[in-house]
Design goal:
26% of the residues lie in helices and 22% in strands. The strands form three sheets. A five-stranded mixed β-sheet has the order 7-6-10-8-9. It has a three-stranded antiparallel β-sheet with strand order 2-1-5, covered by helices on one side.
Amino acid sequence: MNAMMTKLTKHLVTAGAAACMLMLGACATPVPPSTAAMAPINPDYLIGPGDSVNIIVWRNPEVSMSVPVRPDGKITTPLVEDLPAAGKTSTQLARDIEGALAKFIQQPVVTVVVTNFIGNFSEQIRVIGQAARPQALPYRRDMSVMDVVIAVGGVTEFASGNKASIIRTVDGKQEKLVVRLDDLIKDGDISANIMMRPGDILVIPESFF
């Protein structure tokens, strides 16, 4: 009787362990990307370090000029020192400059035009792996994965295009989207042309065959 109980106990323990492994496996299964992750996004362009901004002050050409955004994200003009610019739209920066100039100019009217686009660091698209020129790119409105591939000069002959992926952060969580680059580039399958979002990372792995 004791031997039978011992075997039964071992059987239950083994079954319980197997059930736990199955549960853990289920938890580890990648979750399909959400609809929000697949949807395109159209944010206003945010100024970033390395950009140049052309500041036009109406009827005040002596304080109108083009200045670079410093690595610390700030700009300096003759009447405005160390004004934060990174992470703002051109309109927001223009209003901030107006506020700073109001101490010296009566009712200043400012327009800011961004040139030499690089973009805010957190908004950049990064391409790693078997791209011809792996690099970080400024995000553009309505940018697709095809635009990114063109910008980096395509993929290398060693790329496993249909195993590429986009790492995307949605609501504070990372999601992995499968990208069929071979189908897109070689076969012209436009359905594989995923819309990019600010901060995406395109990973192009190497083929081992």
